[in-house]
Write a structure and sequence with these properties.
Helix content is 23%, strand content 25%. It contains 5 helices and 10 strands, in the order βαβββαβαβββββαα. The strands form 2 sheets. An 8-stranded mixed sheet has the order 3-2-4-5-1-6-9-10. The chain has a two-stranded antiparallel ribbon with strand order 7-8. The N and C termini lie far apart (36 Å).
Length: 209
């Protein structure tokens, strides 16, 4: 199954993806995540996989959980839909469900995500943070702060074939704080800090007729 989350910064999209990944890990599934080269997103055992990987579209994965954080910055921006890498990811998405793959991905805006992957989503999850984020800063010790602190997050969930309205769930601060131990809140995703390219496959692609 494929799940798309979208919402503003600090609306706990990564937190809930980490929670789902942790549950998959506890069920014995291999978890993959698009961690930057210097720091991991998840705080439990996982492997690294990013749409920026040269062989992402060709990977044959079964019965696993994939987390793609900040998907539009991880190679699946709607503005690069004609790129070969993005097309390959779309082909991968079309086969993933048949292979028992759970793929959770998020973006700041629904339409920033590549349209092919977006249309394959089974569930759409909209995150709304209360109160809205107004300011972010780091203190002299490098500790992150956001203001005002989130008091609760509402999640609107709807299936792609539904003809009704989303169903809404509310999660309050005590529960949200428990999620922090599953992931690193300060990791940033950019195209430049994704996984190192697979050099042998890249060389093969360059010399192929």
């Amino acid at each position: 199954m494929m799940y798309q989350r979208w919402g503003d910064n600090r609306s706990y999209k990564t937190a809930f993806n980490a929670w789902e990944a942790y549950k998959a890990y506890r069920r014995g599934m291999t978890v993959y995540c698009n961690c930057p080269k210097t720091r991991c997103i998840l705080n439990f055992p996982h492997e690294h996989l990013s749409p920026f990987d040269v062989d992402f579209g060709q990977r044959e994965l079964y019965n696993c959980c994939i987390i793609t954080d900040q998907t539009e910055s991880a190679g699946l921006d709607s503005r690069t839909s004609s790129a070969a890498r993005t097309r390959e990811a779309g082909y991968f998405a079309g086969q993933a469900k048949k292979a028992g793959v759970e793929w959770w991905y998020d973006s700041l805006r629904h339409k920033r995500l590549d349209i092919t992957v977006r249309q394959f989503s089974d569930w759409y999850i909209h995150h709304i943070r209360y109160p809205p984020l107004l300011k972010v800063w780091y203190d002299k010790d490098g500790k992150y702060h956001d203001w005002p602190p989130a008091q609760y997050v509402k999640l609107g969930v709807i299936h792609r074939d539904s003809t009704g309205s989303p169903k809404w769930w509310t999660y309050y601060r005590p529960f949200l704080e428990k999620l922090h131990k599953l992931y690193n809140t300060e990791v940033q995703i950019r195209p430049s800090n994704q996984a190192e390219p697979n050099i042998p496959l890249l060389h093969k692609a360059l010399i192929a007729p």
